[in-house]
């Protein structure tokens, strides 16, 4: 059997990132909920529609990426051996995308130009590419191991 | 049949002109972010705020003004293709502006009906000699961060503070000095009698069952009432005063020569003359003034009941409607019930009103303000003989005011 997630430092890293991303972005969700409850103008005014969309996207992408990190950690033992170079690369890509994707939405929503988000939104496509790379690598590994 | 519909109603293109090129150009995100960064104007669409005062005012005057086609061909074209005018153009290139006609204007060509504010500005010195436009005071979109509720803003779509003197002080800033203002208005600064618009944009424009501020900035005078027939700002607030009283103070304060006044103008409050003797156009302005808080504060209000209740029996629906609204501020209105219906048959609607009218006159009340100018004798009773004489002299010319 492959080493368990508990002893694999890479797996530990993603358990950490995953649970903390979940905690952070669920808190953001709670904060959004509270702003809805209090009808905070900064979020809910029609003029701030773009901000509301950006922050909602930040919350959902952040939380989901948290889960993806956990899935990555738990599936590592099934995807190959420790020390295989793809693992470190996929791990970096996934960790960075967990930062850049929701972070881009978050920043893009702080300063907005009417219907256009702020320039922070440029982080989002970069994060998305990194996420694709990480997910793609895992998907390929599953295929290869299955054969 | 081959029909084409442009954007319907008062939507974006009515004020911003055709938007297709703008939409196409801005599909390109680089263009959008370049504009965000530079803050430059987007040349592919009209922003009324960036037009000169004339073109900006014309954007609104296309609808808020009186005009007619230049010729028959233009009318025909319009029926097939709609208006040729586009925001950013000069309205006068495609239509002629009307600035007279007694169904919409006072005899001195100042517009007197609502919805035609453009014609008001066309006679205003601040527009003619200065940079005033509709957008000096109005904004068509409420700005983010405005503390007013959406409903407060939507009621007249004014920029913040534009109900206050600030509207005028933007240009006439010499009056932001309280002493200069007091010397000019002769009323304590901050009081209703020292607010620029109360003297220079009084409620002499009517429509939509109310009176609104005239959009022609004028200087109040007794002569305006005598020669043009338009109620002057002083007597619209000092409802309990005669025209002669105003003329004397105007001479005192501003050196304005006094006009020739007849006996009634000298001895009876101007508002009572408008309400009893005036034509329907004057009566509705008086009916509205009786309900304005600043006028009631300046003039007292108890004495108004006979005049207001009498206006509630007026032959014109609009006068009755506005009079009822003012009457609801009188203590006697508690006896009217809520069911007064200004369009009900004469018998039904007038019984209660006449009872209140007669009851007021018959019951002298100690301490009631009296004076011949208010048609109240020393015993506090209504001087019915004068009242009836004025009503018998009423100007019955049919009045049509086209909003």
What's the helix and strand layout?
The complex is a heterodimer of chains A (147) and B (403).
Chain A (H helix, E strand, L loop, with lengths): L8 H29 L3 H4 L4 H31 L5 H26 L1 E2 L2 E2 L5 H24 L1
Antiparallel strand pairs in A: 1-2
Helix pairs in contact in A: 1-3, 1-4, 3-4, 4-5
Chain B lengths: L11 H5 L3 H6 L3 H10 L14 H9 L5 E3 L2 H10 L13 E3 L19 H5 L3 H4 L5 H4 L12 H5 L11 H4 L8 H8 L10 H5 L4 E3 L2 E3 L9 H7 L4 H5 L5 H12 L8 H5 L2 H8 L2 H10 L3 H7 L5 H7 L5 H11 L18 H17 L21 H9 L11
Antiparallel strand pairs in B: 1-2, 3-4
Give an account of the 3D structure.
The complex is a heterodimer of chains A (147) and B (403). Chain A has helices at 9-37, 41-44, 49-79, 85-110, 123-146, and strands at residues 112-113, 116-117. Chain A has 147 residues and is mostly helical. Chain A has one domain. The longest helix of chain A is centred in the middle third of the chain and has 31 residues, at 49-79. Chain B is mainly α and 403 residues long. In chain B, 43% of the residues lie in helices and 3% in strands. In chain B, α18 (280-289) packs parallel to α21 (317-327) and α20 (305-311) packs antiparallel against α22. The longest helix of chain B has 17 residues, at 346-362. Chain B is globular, with a radius of gyration of 25 Å. The chains are: A mainly alpha (147), B mainly alpha (403).
- The chain-level mean pLDDT of chain A equals 93
Q: Cα-atom Rg of chain B, whole angstroms?
A: 25 Å
Give the number of DSSP strands of chain A. Answer: 2
Low-confidence stretches of chain B: none
What is the strand tally of chain B? 4
* N- to C-terminal distance of chain A: 18 Å
Describe the structure in brief.
The complex is a heterodimer of chains A (147) and B (403). Chain A is mainly α. Chain A has helices spanning 9-37, 41-44, 49-79, 85-110, 123-146; strands at residues 112-113, 116-117.
